[in-house]
Fold these 4 entries.
Entry 1:
Amino acid sequence: MIDFGFSRTESACIDLDRHSDRLLNRLIERDPDILTCMACGSCAATCTAGRYLPMNLRRVILHVQRGNTHSEILQTAHCMFCGKCSLVCPRGINTRPLLAAIRTENTNPKNTAQ
Ligand code: SF4
Ligand code: SF4
């Protein structure tokens, strides 16, 4: 295949057969701030882990909000809990507890079962 130096982005369509809002609802119970994320990307731009590893909090939150509880969310395993993302978040989201909750709740089969 010819390498054009770029690739097509993954479809942003929601696959209703795979959609599950259980993880999102559990996170809202813990802290409803996740609903205020406006996907600005400031957190991803400053992320310590994202500089070297596949870790993008903006994308993780988007996938949680869309109910795509698949491998993208496993990126949180690379988080070092440095807290830089919370310092730059314009919505003031306390991202470290949110990241910890995503990790914990995403490993609960009750939240990800289809
Ligand atoms: S706490 Fe995690 S997601 Fe936030 S900047 Fe640090 S490594 Fe990145
Ligand atoms: S910086 Fe805050 S509002 Fe912006 S994408 Fe990250 S969590 Fe969402």
Note: The radius of gyration is 14 Å.
Entry 2:
Amino acid sequence: MSGIQIITRLYRSYTKKFLSKIFLSIIFSFMVAGSTSAIAYLLDPAIEKIFIEKNKILMMLIPIAIFIAFSTKGFSLYLAKSILISVGLEIRKIIQMQIFKSIVSSDLETMDKKHSGKYIAHLTTDVSMIEKLVTDTILLLTKDTLTLIGLLGVMFYQNWKLALFAIIMIPLASIAAKSLGKRMGKISTQTMETYGVVTSYLLEIFKNHKIIKIFQREDYENQRADGYLENLKNKTIKIAKVFIRTTPIMETLTGLMIGGLIYFAGSLVMQDQLTVNSFFSFLAAMMLAYQPVRSLATLNIGIQQGISAARRILPIIDAEIKDKNVDKDLIVTNGSIEFKNVYFKYNNKEEDTLKSLNIKINGGEFTALVGHSGAGKTTILNLIPRFYDPSNGEICIDNQAINNFSLKSIRNNISLVSQDTSLFDDTIKNNIKYSKLNASDEEIYEASKLSYCEEFINKMPNGYDTIIGENGVRLSGGEKQRLSIARAMLKKSKIILLDEATSSLDTEIESKIQKAINTLTKGKTTLVIAHRLSTVINSNKIYVIDNGAVAASGNHEELLKKSALYKNFYDKQITKK
Ligand SMILES: Nc1ncnc2c1ncn2[C@@H]1O[C@H](COP(=O)(O)OP(=O)(O)OP(=O)(O)O)[C@@H](O)[C@H]1O
Ligand SMILES: [Mg+2]
């Protein structure tokens, strides 16, 4: 998208909604322009009538008029700015919300591509730049352009020859600043990328704090941080330098102009073509014009920064949500699942991760997947709620190809207990409730009882209202697992996907978790990635997954007899508790 297209897009999507407020701010801008010009103009009668003619009445009136002009300027400037600030913040929130929605609803494939820190940078810094583009540009374009026009009017009124001389300087100033704008767009893109890298790095540090400690990599990380921050510092310095580079240019040009002007004005006075009062009024107008000229000259810099931020953000906002079948709902009755000749490849991989996979899971039954690490078990699980879509073949739930139905209706019927339990830094109750926000307290208590959470929750100082920390750091591994089972249980969905945790727990907790799982999966279609003997023995059917395909299937006894791979796997990997 070109710069103009981006600005049009920003205008249509955001600015347009606030036209009436913006219009109001433009009216105040007119008042700023009018009062500023009045100030410059009033110096003419002030000098002529008061100092030269010594008029007593005007000696009272002109200072009052000057006072009124200044206060009008102040108040209208305040109002014009405050209206635009609130418009800017509204727009900022709208954009942030759009990015947030896009992140929350984007599919896993998109999220895999970029570090979360980059998204944080988009949400904070990039959005600020767009906000500035929207508000500053409007303010500068209206207030400063109008003020400049008014002041030029005064200048021409006082002496057109002098005014023509002064006006030559304006294009010079803007040419100098224009080239800076382009450069600024480029550097600011680089800076934002660096900013994203720094945020991503920080998130990694927080997540891996323990690992840093045990491997004693504090110095190493300090060095890395120093590198990233140094880079960020240098980029920011570059931006600041380009920005203030306008100062010497503008000051030099102003000096040149005023010097030349005094010479030129002097010669006009000597030829009696200019009076002293006109000259002072003219000079005041010109000095007051300095600020708007300077702002207008640097306007391009802000515009370029905003455009480059929009270039990064708009694709995220516009990202198409994969779900094209929002209206068609999947009806789950029996809960049978079938993989028909399914192929799947991760975007960043050369090879297919799943190859010609055929699996049949009967409704209400307990089916297990076993296989070596990296065989593709979690991948298979991920395809059922459509976290990813197969590249070939189809997956059916109750004989309906899930690709044709809304994500909402599919996921509505599925519960997931993942390998690495994910919890929120919130109360225990809210964590359980996450699967059913309107659950009654009774339902929550029941779910936590059935999942053996009750005993540890009751020991907590605040019971169900205890905050568990980031991803549940204040809970033990087994407690976290039981909590995530309680959460899954509350949903009462027809299909349950379970990625059994590989970490082994003590026998007592283990058997509790086992019982909790049994309660959870009773009468439900369950697909579990099994690591434990008790799980595989419990299964109606087991699929042995090898290298992305089914190597054998059957129950535990059958497989022990017919599959060497299973036997080997059973001997070496399955925890026999
Ligand atoms: N998000 C991803 N992007 C790219 N490749 C992936 C992704 N997730 C998994 N893979 C790859 O797909 C293959 C199968 O991974 P998967 O997680 O399904 O294995 P698994 O059978 O669940 O193993 P484990 O028992 O260790 O959990 C692996 O080679 C892995 O590197
Ligand atoms: Mg796995």
Note: The longest strand covers residues 337-344.
Entry 3:
Amino acid sequence: MNNGTCHNQQTGSNCSCAAGWTGETCAADINECITSPCMHNASCTNTEGSYSCNCSVGWEGNNCENDVDECSQNASICMHGSACTDVDGSYICNCISGFEGRNCETDIDECQSAPCLNNGTCNNSIGSFNCACAQNFTGTNCDKELSTSTDPLSGSKLMGT
Ligand SMILES: [Ca+2]
Ligand SMILES: [Ca+2]
């Protein structure tokens, strides 16, 4: 039965069973799940004559033995120009400055840390931020004080960097 080969068909004995089957006439299903063939925390389901593995995320293959190369499967999985590193069962995004999150999908609001000094106004932007400095101050963080005697302008203005 079940594609097994028996040397003596008449008695049904001495059978060589196909994979997944056992018993004198190959009529009995083998419960492969007893031997835990599914790797990396996959769940095993016994079926008639076979079994199947339901792989955990990050693994693939009949027995979930192969790591999924997420970086190759999805070149844009790490966002905003961040580098992707494949690791067993997962992947790692190395975010460039200004972004955070599992996939570097989140813009960091640098203004939360109040980086603009001397009453400068902070403007968050995607991947960066800038400071609109108060009068007489300049620099990326408005940390440089201008000489008041040489500045003919009045009122606040945005100083370039
Ligand atoms: Ca991987
Ligand atoms: Ca930002």
Note: The chain has a mean pLDDT of 90.
Entry 4:
Amino acid sequence: MTDFTQFPKSGTIILAGATGELGFLIAGFVVRRGGSLKSLVRKGSDNARIPELRRLGAEIIEVDFNNVAELVKACSGGTCVVSALSGLRDVIVETQTRLLNAAVEAGVPRFIPSDYCIDYTKLPEGSNRNLDLRREFSTRLNNAPIAPTSILNGMFTDLLTGQAPVVLFKIKRVLYWGDADQPMDFTTTRDTAAYTAAAALDTTTPRFLRIAGEVATIRDIQTAATKATGEEFGTLRAGSLGFLGSMIKITRALSPKNDEVFPPWQGMQYLHNMLSGKPKLSPLENDRYPEIRWTLVREVLATKH
Ligand SMILES: NC(=O)c1ccc[n+]([C@@H]2O[C@H](COP(=O)([O-])OP(=O)(O)OC[C@H]3O[C@@H](n4cnc5c(N)ncnc54)[C@H](OP(=O)(O)O)[C@@H]3O)[C@@H](O)[C@H]2O)c1
């Protein structure tokens, strides 16, 4: 494992969402790199990660995320605000806007929004509900007097052994629609966190940083699954992308679950986007922090066994 203490950086990171999956990992990497960390948590939260964050050396600041004055106070002295919040419009657009306004008022020079996704700048409005919210927030961010940096990482590779029904371990098939040779971007949650922490402590980042632990086609995933498990995997083409588009409409009509962050139809939208090739990340900035070692799809699939 990389000893990040060899690459020390200074800075005070104000992190929102540190009790979440990605945020907690970002917190760990910020501290390992020598940054100071202030974690904003919801008032009265008894999340089990809070004592862990304290042990890491983070300052825990309980805030009412609806109260800009409290957020301004919490942001003061920060060199970069990092959001790893997860949610729908109330969080991605509204809460992040309050956090942004507070960061500006507190004089924080930089802001990393909770994007961590495929390239939504290349996708048409309406093709992915969650990414439309990110695009909407990005308009506000672009107009604010602060330097924004979005981390775009494709799909969390971890989802291939979890929520994303792509690698069907039981029947040894890789499920897809459209073209099995379409390159797609995958980065683990951990590698995304390591990179985000490095970017948070780097004062010279551009508007977008695009990364991929591995660029893989459906056929590459098939090979990775075969190597990872020692068993022969095949592919399973369920139809065209047009057919997947119709399935998304039907699933959304039958099971809208509009108040869930990741209802099945939204996961299908994400897969449709990726398989279309439109949000493919380019250019990749993987080498910006050469100390980061990227985890391959095969390594993630091997954890399933
Ligand atoms: N590219 C991909 O494949 C992929 C996959 C998964 C996630 N992501 C993205 O990664 C980011 C982080 O996701 P995650 O999985 O780490 O999320 P998570 O585990 O659900 O954590 C969400 C964090 O946001 C906080 N939060 C939620 N609603 C809040 C509110 N109204 N006010 C204040 N704090 C609130 C939570 O605090 P509490 O602990 O108090 O609830 C928690 O700290 C999101 O942008 C998500 O979309 C990307």
Note: The mean pLDDT is 96.
